[in-house]
Amino acid sequence: MNAIATAAALSVPISFCRPSKLDFNKGLRGRFRVLAVFREELGKKNEWDALFHVEDPRSKVPQYKGKFFDIYQVLEVARYDIQYCDWRARQDVLTIMLLHEKVVEVLNPLAREYKSIGTMKKELAELQEELAQAHRQVHISEARVATALDKLAYMEELVNDRLLQDRSTTVVDQTSSSPSTSAQSMDVEKRRLPRKGLNVSGPVESYHPRLKNFWYPIAFSSDLKDDTMIPIECFEEPWVIFRGNDGKPGCIQNTCAHRACPLHLGSVNEGRIQCPYHGWEYTTDGKCEKMPSTRLLNVKIKSLPCFEKDGMIWIWPGNEPPAAIPPSLLPPSGFEIHAEIVMELPIEHGLLLDNLLDLAHAPFTHTSTFAKGWSVPSLVKFLTPASGLQGYWDPYPIDMEFRPPCMVLSTIGISKPGKLEGQNTKQCATHLHQLHVCLPSSKQKTRLLYRMSLDFAPLLKHVPLMQYLWRHFAEQVLNEDLRLVVGQQERMNKGANVWNLPVSYDKLGVRYRLWRDALERGAKQLPFTK
Ligand code: FES
Ligand SMILES: [Fe+2]
């Protein structure tokens, strides 16, 4: 990347790292007594120590000479910006706490005995003014943090672009050492131009075994009644889930040990699944406990580790020992789940994830549904302050996260159902939360679990047939995508690269592909994960 362009574009905030005009020590002058009282409190509450005893980073600001910085210097400066903002915010909180202590002290009944009402009123008025000043300072700090994070995210985007360019340039260099004719030279020259591309071309291959070593949600709990079963395909193998006598779910192969009849065509009785052909019965761990009309043999079919949490049933399809139970996929507090929908789709799960992690397509693709009437912004960006797999869209009030191995979580700010509004998600009064789980079924099939939650209109849950209406909406939106993604898949199968030329708004999709690529290569440290 051009360092000059970078620094110029960023307008590197040198002043940002310099001491603020609002000097904390000066601000506290004359309050040593309060500080002493507070320090006694601190002695009792050691946990506060860690919060406030943070070294002032201003003495360590990197000093670079020259008008323009290279990218590493810029990142270093940005890092100090963030450290300074953090330190400043802690001092602001400390100031407010000290002032609150002081208020308590002034209002102390013992103090009233030796202070006149007039003195107390005067002291309280002064404290009020100081508190107001401290709160103003907090707002300034908040704005600084937001600006610093935005700049950091932007820089990160530039660095990522650079990494992508390096990656494709390396690939090109490998091919450019062949002997050249003039026609070849031109071809090589053309290919030498740095292009940003990933290679995700077809045909769609079988899933890499490393992708199996994760917990996968496969069904909503509410869909699995005591006497029902759910057949699923996962990594090209047929499985069936049902509940045992204890009510806990189990996942066993959906193929009878006797003569390979699909078990899900049978029934569940007393916690066992019965094959519809000759009546053999299996428990949730795959043990055959009944073989009518013959002597019972010692037979066990394959089963997978399985658990149920927060309304979902999860399995571990990999060969490695199962990892710890993953974090909940429930919406944040304040949200109510309104719809849980399952769909079987004729596309590879990676292509579906690419689609879900992309919002820039909305005003072009979803013109009959949620993006009807949306204007096309001059610039769409996905900002990732945490350098990971989550961030927010600009200019849309939407936060989004890719959660490995196959989940997308998003929170959409809305003013009234169906209408987007506001600068960012937090500024919107009402929100819709979505979970998409894209379970890899087979090479060109995905089992999609969709959960939709709202933090408003709780009564909608009780409107009759609302579930059907939500399903209808979800299918309409998905169909708008599906015809395009099916088309991509067809071209991919004929060798087209579906990530031929990613641009800045493709950041999250590209990160998913880089994460998956590293996983399949067996990288020790996966990118974008802590
Ligand atoms: S095939 Fe299942 S019992 Fe015979
Ligand atoms: Fe879409």
TrEMBL record:
Region (Disordered): 169-190
InterPro entries, alphabetized: ARHD_Rieske_2Fe_2S, Cholesterol_7-desaturase, PaO, Rieske_2Fe-2S, Rieske_2Fe-2S_sf
Biased composition regions of type Low complexity, renumbered to the chain: 169-185
GO molecular function: 2 iron, 2 sulfur cluster binding; chlorophyllide a oxygenase activity; iron ion binding
Compartment(s) of residence: Plastid, Chloroplast
Main location: plastid
Protein origin, superkingdom: Eukaryota
Family matches, as Pfam families: PaO, Rieske
Coiled coil regions, renumbered to chain: 110-144
Rieske domain: residues covered: 215-315
UniProt KW keywords: 2Fe-2S, Chloroplast, Coiled coil, Iron, Iron-sulfur, Metal-binding, Oxidoreductase, Plastid, Transit peptide
CC per GO annotation: chloroplast
Protein name: Chlorophyllide a oxygenase, chloroplastic
Organism for this UniProt entry: Senna tora
